[in-house]
Write a structure and sequence with these properties.
CATH topology of the largest domain: Aminopeptidase
CATH class of the largest domain: Alpha Beta
Mean pLDDT: 92
Helix content: 10-25%
Number of domains: 2
Radius of gyration: 20 Å
Number of strands: 15
Number of helices: 8
CATH architecture of the largest domain: 3-Layer(aba) Sandwich
Largest sheet: 13 strands, mixed
Strand order of the largest sheet: 1-2-4-5-6-7-15-8-14-13-11-10-9
Distance between the termini: 22 Å
Length: 344
């Protein structure tokens, strides 16, 4: 595991206690859990109408994108049978600075479902978050997963916002670039901060956390106007593969075409500049062994129409939110929120 430590001094993935629920042990992650966790992933397809699973070299790799991740393992009969992950973030809602936790990668082995394991992990996770002074917990759930949405609503979550998971295919550039454009492998943070810094759930460390995954930031300028799009190779972290597909080897995955995740778009009002960057990225993807581009946006975000119109596929996700502080409700500013490109 990465040896960097979160601000509270705990090692990533460590929880402070081991609890027992009728023979079930909830404990922290250990590297030797990996074969069992990858088995859980393979046995936990989701999404409709084409169920998928997340392939990765290590189950923990998605969590390690975040500064402060924690994995809770449910162990029964001497083996991991469940897992749930969280990442705690320093962020803001309605100009109030606070701590939120993102919940993801929850899996339970099919043979052990309907035995209260998910509830036991949830209880331990909530107790931990209360002790850490976290204000709220949220999760991203595909809109077709009605069972999960209803289950979360029963335990205090509510639908906060719908977000759109947009997929594009690479395409050759038809027109030559009209405006000056540049590519950087280090984030130009000022323009991103100016565009997104006021949004609810904004975190400034997304670009720096994905620098080692072929991060690039494309910028176009014309006079005083500016546009920018950042990306990283999400397939170096994990890949969505069909649930019916044979489980690939790591070598087979590395030979596959890549998936680029686009994020931190700047210049929505300068749609011609933004369109040029988008076209350049799609053209560049063709010679970079990239088969898919992914862009996730808040449904209420005023981005140019071409971002929606040119998508080859769209999935709708709900962000579900649960306050964790008594008598506290976040004062959402009713404007587009910030979408963290490490999620989904």
């Amino acid at each position: 595991m990465d040896e960097k430590r979160p601000p509270n001094g705990r090692h990533p993935g460590i929880i402070p206690s081991v609890n027992k629920f009728g023979g079930l042990v909830i404990r922290h992650y250990r590297p030797d859990d990996e074969p069992y966790l990858m088995e859980l992933e393979r046995l936990s397809p989701r999404g409709e109408p084409r169920p998928f699973v997340h392939f990765r070299e290590r189950f923990i790799d998605r969590a390690m994108l975040f500064k402060e991740p924690y994995l809770f393992i449910a162990e029964k009969d001497g083996r991991p049978v469940g897992v749930t992950s969280i990442a705690i973030k320093e962020t803001q809602i309605g100009n109030e600075y606070l701590r939120l936790a993102y919940s993801f990668d929850t899996r339970v082995h099919p043979k052990y479902r309907r035995m209260g394991i998910a509830n036991a992990m949830q209880e331990e996770k909530l107790n931990f978050l209360y002790s850490e002074g976290v204000h709220g917990l949220y999760a991203d759930v595909i809109s077709t997963n009605v069972a999960s949405i209803r289950m979360l609503e029963k335990v205090g979550f509510y639908k906060l916002r719908m977000i759109l998971y947009l997929t594009y295919t690479p395409y050759p550039l038809v027109m030559p670039p009209e405006y000056d454009s540049y590519a950087y492998d280090e984030p130009q943070t000022d323009i991103v901060e100016e565009t997104f810094g006021w949004r609810d759930m904004y975190v400034p460390d997304v670009a720096t956390s994905v620098l080692n995954y072929n991060f690039q930031q494309f910028i176009a300028v014309h006079g005083e106007a500016i546009a920018s799009v950042s990306l990283y190779d999400q397939s170096l972290v994990s890949q969505q593969i069909s649930a019916d597909e044979p489980w690939p080897t790591v070598e087979e995955v590395r030979r596959r075409a890549r998936t680029w995740r686009l994020f931190d778009e700047v210049g929505s009002r300068n749609k011609d500049l933004l369109r040029q960057l988008f076209d350049q990225i799609r053209d560049y993807a063709i010679i970079s062994n990239v088969s898919k581009l992914v862009w996730v946006v808040d449904r209420s975000d005023p981005v140019p129409n071409f971002i929606f119109n040119e998508a080859s596929d769209q999935k709708d996700y709900w962000i579900l939110f649960r306050p964790l502080v008594n008598d506290w409700e976040p004062a959402w500013n009713q404007k587009p929120i910030y979408i963290d490109a490490r999620e989904l």
